Queue: 4 jobs
Job 1
Amino acid sequence: MQGRLIKNDAEYERARVALLEMAARLDDPLKDMEPDERIKTHKIYDRTADLMKYYSRGRDVEREPRLRGQYEAAGWAYQDFSSPADTPRMSPETKTSPKTEEAAKQTPEPPKTASKVSSWLDD
């Protein structure tokens, strides 16, 4: 997924409320919507629903790491909360991990030692 992502639970809740409001507007037969406006609203609805699934799957993987393998086997993208970059773990079009090629080129960083991590406690 590229573009704007849902970053936290508050944004997820706002997206959920907006999705319900858009669904009500799209489903209302008495609502006079121009065809162009209806198409645009429907595209926004679809994108919001996709972002919500992407975020939800990422939170599921965070809570239950065994789902990572199942999602990758199914070719489902999910939001990776373990890294600072918000890039998809799985590319749905190619069903290959975009990080695999980058990981082969880069050398792994040495793990942070306890002294570096807890140095702020000395103050």
Job 2
Amino acid sequence: MRIHISPRKRAFTVLGNEVLRDRRLSFTARGILGYLLSLPDGSREDVRTLADKHPGVGRRGVAKAVDELVKYGYYLRRTLRDPETGHVRTETFVYDVPHTDDRPEPPQPDPDPAQATDPGTGEVDDGETGASPLGTTTSVEEPSLPEPVKLTEATGRGAALLARIAAYEPRLALSATETLALAPLAEQWLAHGVSDLEARSLLTDGLPRVVYSARALLADRLDRKLPAPRVRKDPAAPAAPPAECGICHDPLPNLEAPCRSCAAARTGPRTGPRTAPLSPTEVASLADIARRALRGMPALATCTVSL
């Protein structure tokens, strides 16, 4: 038998093996004892409530198991009388080790006399209120406020880019201070002509499963993955002229090749493939040859069709 116990950090009960292996108790009694010890202090449980929660055992089975716990000192009942009202009530005590009424209670430690003295009492010495006991003065420096970040147009564009990245990938969300600190790095990307789609792809692809510091991760990627500057075209510049043939000046899709007419004039006429359709006899002859070749049979006639 292989035993598997998972580590627990909350909602668990510690119980000694000598209790769970006490052969004097039945398995029902051990289970009820473990259940009672898992409840918080002050819970209200008795034979009736236990039987209602465990209908498979029944009230008689629960009562028998509780009697076993009472017999061996795990379950005690004490009758107490209220001195003011005179009402009698029964309190139940559940222990993780056998306990009896004549068992002495653990002694309470005596209080430390040094700690029992109130340190705040005593005679008040003459002196100015708030003065140092030794007569020395201490200088209190006011905490310095952080210098405000100057928000420029370039910083605003970089901060807007970081905000769009955070909207696409929530794991890279930054605070206002972190956004202004990384805005100059993001502005360099915009100055290099990087589009939002390309920046989003470079900064968000391959993220770890858990991002512990979005600022550190973005600072590293903004500095390490900065693309080269893009070549920008002037929109007011005239369009480039279309490609032309160097001989007849006809438009060409390729700058290095002449047009077909000029190339044919240089090299002479070319013999192209046959374009006329085949006759029914030629089609039947070719089909017979292909059929016999697939079946491994010799051809009966030689094809005279010229392709």
Job 3
Amino acid sequence: MNLGSSAKRGQVPHLAPFVMEKASIEIDGNRILNDISLRIEAGDFVAILGENGSGKTTLLRSLVGLLPLTLGSLTVYGQPIEHFSQWSSIAYVPQRLMAQTAVPVSVEEAVMAARISPSRRFTRDVHLRGATQAALETVGLWSRRNDRLDTLSGGQQRRVMVARALACEASTLILDEPTAGIDADSELRMADTLADLHSAGKTIILVTHDLGPITDMANHVIVVGGKGTNSVLYDGPAPPPREIYDHVWHHHDDEPDPRGTNPSGLVSGP
């Protein structure tokens, strides 16, 4: 798979994917994140850590415009988020697995659907099939392409969700707990996949509670959970100071998704 092909789709790789300045986010009148300033550079591998309910998922959703900022600003590849339009360059893989539908779909169909837009809904060109195959090969599931999605294990379904992001040829991948609820072998497979993507120049941003193989690959760590005026406890190179580990507990969703679960299981921009 040409993992670096997203640069051909109009993205400007040298610009920082995300710059947040003095941002605060409220949900139903409750302040979830306060006074956050951060900068994520192109090619970073960022691990976002924090205790339960600290705002990790809230932060991810704000980066892709699913939750608006109450205060502050956010630029995406150098543009204010409200003016950014190249959302095909950013793929968001939520923690929830794909919702089951009344019509069974194969693994290949689930991945292929990520690239079907209104203008090409009734076409399945060679590039579309090639991108689908390459994505499934990258996550080690091409041999399962004809299997029904709902027959796969939880770990395999998470890899399908990553394959959907790859099929979109996004240059930035944002993943919420990609190893949650999967076995050790699946976790190693996911770690290998993300390592390959990062080596190919992708920007990786993920939430994880695991201080194991995936976190070890991060070059940039953000720990959220500050209860005072700033919600960021640490923002810097990996690993964070030992005392910060006390704040890295098991992750769960910080708030219900106000839009409900997306049937595709993947959001590529707002």
Job 4
Amino acid sequence: MRRLLYGLALAAALTAALSSCKPKVTAQSKGIRFDTLCVDTTALLSDSGGVAHCALHLNLIFLRGKEYEGVNDSLLRSGLLAPEYLSLSDYKMTPAEAVDSFIDRYITDYREFYTTVYAEEGNDTTATISYSVDASLRDGRSGITNYVTHVVSDLGAGSTDYTQVLNIDITNDRVLRLEHVFLDGYEQELGDIIAERLCKQLNVSSLDALRSAGYFVQCDPYATANFEMADRAIRFIYIKGEIADRDKGEVVVSVPYSAVRRLLRK
């Protein structure tokens, strides 16, 4: 019964995938069209009683056309969905096939792990989880499209939410990583620049003062891999609890391109 419930829900969702969702697309890339892929599905932990379940909501965007298959594949293997099951294989899949594969693996792992949790605690709440991803697209620096996702994850002990950005270099069929953007050996100087910019944003005068305010207390300043190449600046996005206490929320440090020009690859 539980497999049938999941299978029917997934099949229905994928059938309606290209028409049922309207993610926000503000990117103006000429000649590029987009498809949306939306899946909402729920799988019970067990058919032997209880209401513990796993709920998944994926509202994604992909580029339409055979010429963009490489870009879509890069998106799927660059941490768009977590855990990163899709990066473990080089097997080529369409976006719909990849999402189907992700959901099947996610629910399989959920049942394997939380069956034990439920057996030990007998608590539907702690064995009920959810994972939600909503995507949007917007224009970034010249030649770059920013793929922005809002993620909400609840693994049974309370939810967490965060913003994730992937920078699509459409010309070169890839999602940009820090090493694509910055010259070798950038780490120390870029970390110092980020600290300086955060000091300005918080109106403090030094790294010591920044740490006294609760930022970078347990680590040296660094560039997060979660960054957005916007039109006039690079925005480094630190999730809650990453470089400061969770109650400070998401921390975004905006660094103008002029401040890192000497570190940028041409």
